[in-house]
Amino acid sequence: MHSRIKQEWSHITVNNATAMPRLVPGKLVAATHNRGKVSELKDLFAPHGFEVVSALELDLDEPEETEDSFSGNALLKARAAALATGLPALSDDSGLAVTALGGQPGIYSARWAGEPRDFYKAMEKVEAELKASGSQDRSAKFVCALAVVWPDGTQAVYEGEVHGTLVWPPRGDKGFGYDPVFVAEGETMTFGEMDPARKHAMSHRARAVEKLRAALLA
């Protein structure tokens, strides 16, 4: 499937946002099986008249993430969903980049959680790597690349970041992924302790969505 996708879409390039068509309210495929991401995307797009349905709900396979960047992997997943459904597809590839670890785990953030996903183990690994580094720098950022692909192959990527500090031990159970160890700049609670609405207003995903809104929904 992956080779077919690359072959059929190899002529497509990332378009400049100024050349993008409007994203028309209606059904929008979220090319992910991650329930936490789907929930956040539904909250962010519902006010604009979109019915977000996930790849999991549509029983779509998730292609292997073989690219070397957040934007590359986001496009890969959105292309697969648009090709399979004939609907506009949205995909987010995101992760945690820790300054003292040279940006790791980065695009491998989910893989650090293993199979089946266990993000507590991933958070333990980050903490162990930080201690092993000997660095006192606990700064980090969440990065999100949000790709949208239309059935005709038109595509665009919007990126958002939120900077903050890592804490240990993990705090809160309201988020997902690395949320319980991340405190955004200017905040005292981790993303794992925040109510979803508050987190969604400032997250890396929300910032990427805001750029998409400005380009495609304004």
CATH class reads Alpha Beta
Q: Describe the main β-sheet briefly.
A: 6 strands, mixed
Head-to-tail CA distance between termini:
35 Å
Alpha-beta content class: alpha/beta
CATH topology: Maf protein
CATH architecture: Alpha-Beta Complex
The number of distinct β-strands equals 6
State the helicity in percent bands: 25-40%
Can you tell me the number of structural domains? 1
Q: Strand percentage, roughly?
A: 15-25%
> Which shape, going by the Cα principal axes?
globular
Report the order of strands and helices. Answer: HEHEHEHEEEHH
Strand order of the largest sheet: 2-1-3-4-5-6
Number of helices: 6
Gyration radius, in Å: 17 Å
| Poorly predicted runs of 5 or more residues | 1-18
Mean pLDDT: 90
Characterization of the model:
The protein has one domain (about 1-215): Maf protein. By secondary structure, it is of the alpha/beta class. About 35% of the residues lie in helices and about 20% in strands. It has a 6-stranded mixed β-sheet. The protein has helices at about 1-10, 35-45, 70-85, 120-135, 195-200, 205-215; strands at about 25-30, 50-55, 90-100, 140-150, 155-165, 180-185.
List the helices and strands and how they pair.
Elements: H1 2-9, E1 27-30, H2 35-45, E2 51-54, H3 70-85, E3 89-98, H4 119-133, E4 139-149, E5 155-166, E6 182-184, H5 196-202, H6 204-217
Parallel strand pairs: 1-2, 1-3
Antiparallel strand pairs: 3-4, 4-5, 5-6
Helix pairs in contact: 1-3
Name the descriptors.
alpha/beta; 33% helix; globular; 6 strands; disordered N terminus; Maf protein; 218 residues; 20% strand; 6-stranded mixed sheet
